[in-house]
Amino acid sequence: MKILVTGGAGYIGSHTVVELAQAGYEPVIIDDFSNSKESVLDGLRAILGRDVPCYHSDCGDAESLRQVLKQEPDIKGVIHFAAFKAVGESVQKPLAYFHNNVGSLITLLQVMAEFGIENLVFSSSCTVYGIPDALPVTEATPTKPASSPYGRTKQMCEDMVHDVSAAPGNKLHTILLRYFNPIGAHASAKIGELPLGVPNNLVPFITQTAAGIREKLTIFGDTYDTPDGTNIRDYIHVVDLAKAHIVAVQRLLDRKATDTVETFNIGTGHGNSVLEVVKTFEQASGQKLNYIIGPARPGDVPAIYADATKAAEVLGFKTETSLYDSLASSWKWQQTLGK
Predict the structure, then answer these.
(1) How many CA atoms lie within 13 A of 18 on its CB side?
(2) Is 306's pLDDT higher than 70?
(3) Span 256-293, pLDDT tens digits
(4) Is residue 130 predicted with pLDDT exceeding 80?
């Protein structure tokens, strides 16, 4: 059963492709490689023992997307990862984020309707909650004003899906997965987080600092209203996150959803501060990190972590990997990359 994976050569996308293939699906990748490398395809081949169909194309280009779907008939569903995802960068380049993230979903939904594809798993984010009044956040937590243009694009995309689903004659069925903070790498160390240029996420900056690629790690702010003053996030291993997509796809295909749009938090259910991540990495890797405290970044939320009860009760999904093991896998992956 074919599943189109937009952004399938990216960090989360590539791990999800592996889990799809191992669960018996036929993943088909579309990726413009603006934030990924074609070497990821070699990693997928090494893990799966075969090539995965991959189309070097922009899913925001309607005609290009049509050509892919003509060449790959019988696509039964789409997992939509393709998006820009850096909070800080979105503050600097808001138009690029709106054009890419919102525009590509509009195009994708239009073309899906043309080809009669009714199932969508959408890559959303905990940033839709803005700065929450209470923690942990549940799916019923109000979505307050987002703290960044990136967060606003995810809010707009979620709203778009709801509006499309409410339209007369709609056949779209969607599961919105609100991710928390994916970290870690595949156990084989054949694929992992592969940032282009300076990393935007904490863990690759940590591993590159430990490997000597970066002189030091800057922790952005230590005066937040948290126990140690640094940001708190819910860090989920990327393979656990990938497995949530398999469950979501199957739920859509089996028509078990109770509504045309369902929403789930995908996280561990508890938070760790930046300093806790640093200290846990040092334990897991045996490396001492050179880090300094810098100013807080615009757009950063002080603390957020998931209530993962709904995913457990409805999807039967729970995370399996500890923070220690997740960071150990990140370090193993970094060591395969060298300097």
Answers:
(1) 30
(2) yes
(3) 988 999 999 999 999 999 999 999 999 999 999 999 99
(4) yes
Residues comprising the chain, all counted = 339
Tokens linked to 289: 């990190």
DSSP 3-state assignment of 137?
strand
Dist CA 24 CA 21 (whole Å): 5
Domain residue extents for the chain: 2-183+235-266
Non-local (6+) Cβ contacts of 105 within 8 A are 80, 122, 157, 160, 161
Terminal Cα-to-Cα distance of the chain (whole angstroms): 40
How many CA atoms within 13 Å lie on the side-chain side of 38?
6
Torsion, CA 328, CA 333, CA 215, CA 272, rounded to 10: -40
CA 129 to chain CA centroid, nearest Å:
16
Three-state SS at 294? strand
C-alpha–C-alpha distance, residues 186 and 93, integer Å: 31
Question: pTM to 2 decimals?
Answer: 0.96
**What are the residues whose beta carbons fall under 8 Å from the beta carbon of 169, sequence distance 6 or more?**
none
- Alpha-carbon Rg for the chain, nearest whole angstrom, is 19
- Catalytic residue numbers read 150
Quick check: 117 and 80 in contact, CB under 8 A? no
Q: How far apart are CA 293 and CA 96, in angstroms?
A: 30
The total of other beta-carbon atoms located within 10 Å of residue 188's CB is 15
Helix (H) or strand (E) holding 237: strand 235-237
Q: Does the domain spanning 2-183+235-266 belong to CATH 3.40.50.720?
A: yes
Is the separation of the CB atoms in 124 and 248 below 8 Å?
A: no
Q: Cα angle vertex 102, ends 100, 108, to 5°?
A: 90
CA distances from 169 to 113, 172, 301 (A): 11, 9, 39
The CA distance from 39 to 45, in Å, is: 10
